[in-house]
Amino acid sequence: MPIHIENGKVRLDHPKGSSAEVLLYGATVISWKTIVDGSEPTEHLFLSKKAVLDGSRAVRGGIPLVFPCFGPPSRPEHSKMVQHGFARTETWKLAKQSDDGETLEVHLTLDPNPSIESVYDKPFSLTYVVAITEKTMVNELRVTNPHPSDTLEFQTLLHTYFRAPMEDVRVEPLQGKPYFDKTTMTERVENRELVDVKTFTDSVYGNAEKKSKFTWPGGGIEIESFNYPDLVVWNPQEEVASKMTDMEEYGWHHFLCVEPASVRDFVKVTPGGTWSGKQIVYTIPGRSH
Ligand SMILES: O=P(O)(O)OC[C@H]1O[C@H](O)[C@H](O)[C@@H](O)[C@@H]1O
């Protein structure tokens, strides 16, 4: 079976060798593999060896979903929530699956339940689409506002932990972009053509390009995003990661987070409307790692 569900995890196995694994817990994609150089499938996501997958805390790695607030809550309506909201710590439902021979696709849904309602009283409906082809992965979040008269406002982000060598990786194109540097809490403008993460990096770029990429000698990933005006680049380095109980030793050497986002401002969805944000991720042709 190309798509099957087992022990709270959805597996997609493409006939051309690519695969993905999505936990119902947080709708967290924890693995995405493709065949890059004609041999064994290569894992493109970082998942900490100490990540907790039992539903007791957000997963340290893969693609946790941030909704409806980014970072510590900044608005009264989010004040009962923990950092990054509840979407990454709720159990989603597998609502739909399809396989047309080229694309394997699953739809996971999340709607208000008593645990969410204890911290958030707005009506909403979320659908998260994960699809893989031989070479690509698509992650699309759809947010519907079922309220008859109130606008729904939220922040959201695909917190993607990519497996890459921290020392060598460079992100572009970010030159000239405004960004909020969370390491110093200052608003700045990026002057580097190629951005590295060799020091503690927590940068929230605005006005992001539709296509971003990061490369290192022998590897690279391109991200095409739709409807995400911002891009967060993060590597916690030892100073922050060593305080995380779920980060494996030296884990920060093996990933960077490049996160299509709508967080510098709040997305506004009119009554009855639906917002959707999407990333398409693929390895850069001719490169392998
Ligand atoms: O530790 P978490 O709650 O998963 O957050 C991990 C990180 O997420 C984002 O990248 C934020 O910009 C960081 O400030 C935060 O530290």
From TrEMBL:
Alphabetic keyword roster: Isomerase
Superkingdom as given in the UniProt entry: Eukaryota
Catalytic activity: alpha-D-glucose 6-phosphate = beta-D-glucose 6-phosphate
Binding site for substrate: 60, 83, 88
An example Gene Ontology biological process: carbohydrate metabolic process
SUPFAM superfamilies assigned: Galactose mutarotase-like
Active site: 159, 259
Ranges in coiled-coil conformation: none
Signal peptide span: none
Keyword Isomerase: yes
Role noted for this protein: Catalyzes the interconversion between the alpha and beta anomers from at least three hexose 6-phosphate sugars (Glc6P, Gal6P, and Man6P).
Protein name, per record: Glucose-6-phosphate 1-epimerase
Lineage of the organism: Eukaryota, Fungi, Dikarya, Basidiomycota, Agaricomycotina
